[in-house]
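Support request from a user on the community tier.

User writes: "When I paste my structure tokens into the form, the page sometimes reloads and wipes my input. The last time it worked, I copied everything first. Here is what I submitted, just in case something in the input itself triggers the reload:"
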């Protein structure tokens, strides 16, 4: 689930892969649109930024939300009366340890495509859960924590150009995210309305059947994260024109 915190990472990467460096600090490596190895240049720029992304301090005059810890808004899961959950006040650690692979950037079609890998994500927050998983009805409200290991995401970004004040800018037209969580463990306090024995049984059952739980959760996460990150990236991209983002 919170693996999609991965995708905040994806978003920050999208912003920087978009090249909005032109109007930003000189500490950020700018990639020329004519670079024959443009994708490699983008990856190097991102790797150089990793320590700054963790704290959010890109320079004295330019800051973004920090990745460590990464704060996320509500994530909802809803598949009828028998499968509802809300996860809120989420804080995720480990997002800055991402690795970006297989980046393909095409400035003619304005399509960027890349993979993200995160070795470990730890998370905590609040949950409100009412689900039927196999033959067991599980319900509760309380504190949540857990860990995801070896998480992968495939991200595809479709940009479009637009004119503002006579100048050409970029914005995201569509952002697609596909998530694969390899291993995950959950610890939800107060399942079964504060009955400690049943709460332990419920957590054990969820973790033993985590694949079923995650499969139900993933589509909503992908949708929510794509919408959130698209809005964030477009707001940041307004700072630089296309020519500033991708100088000749």
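"...and here is what came back when it finally went through:"
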């Amino acid at each position: 689930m919170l693996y999609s915190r991965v995708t905040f990472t994806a978003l920050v990467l999208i912003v920087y892969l978009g090249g909005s460096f032109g109007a930003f600090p000189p500490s950020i490596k700018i990639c020329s649109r004519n670079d024959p190895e443009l994708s490699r240049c983008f990856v190097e720029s991102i790797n150089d930024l990793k320590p700054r992304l963790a704290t959010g301090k890109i320079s004295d005059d330019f800051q973004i939300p920090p990745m460590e810890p990464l704060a996320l808004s509500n994530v909802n899961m809803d598949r009828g009366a028998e499968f509802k959950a809300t996860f809120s006040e989420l804080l995720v650690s480990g997002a800055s340890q991402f690795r970006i692979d297989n980046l393909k950037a095409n400035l003619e079609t304005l399509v960027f495509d890349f993979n993200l890998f995160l070795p470990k994500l730890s998370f905590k927050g609040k949950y409100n859960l009412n689900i039927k998983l196999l033959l067991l009805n599980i319900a509760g409200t309380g504190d949540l924590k857990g860990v995801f290991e070896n998480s992968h995401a495939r991200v595809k970004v479709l940009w479009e150009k637009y004119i503002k004040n006579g100048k050409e800018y970029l914005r995201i037209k569509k952002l697609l995210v596909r998530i694969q969580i390899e291993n995950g463990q959950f610890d939800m306090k107060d399942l079964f309305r504060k009955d400690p024995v049943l709460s332990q049984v419920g957590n054990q059952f969820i973790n033993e059947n985590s694949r079923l739980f995650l499969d139900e959760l993933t589509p909503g996460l992908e949708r929510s994260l794509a919408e959130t990150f698209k809005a964030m990236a477009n707001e940041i991209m307004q700072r630089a024109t296309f020519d500033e983002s991708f100088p000749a």
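Agent notes: The reload is a front-end session timeout and is unrelated to the input. The radius of gyration is 20 Å. The mean pLDDT is 80. Escalated to web team.
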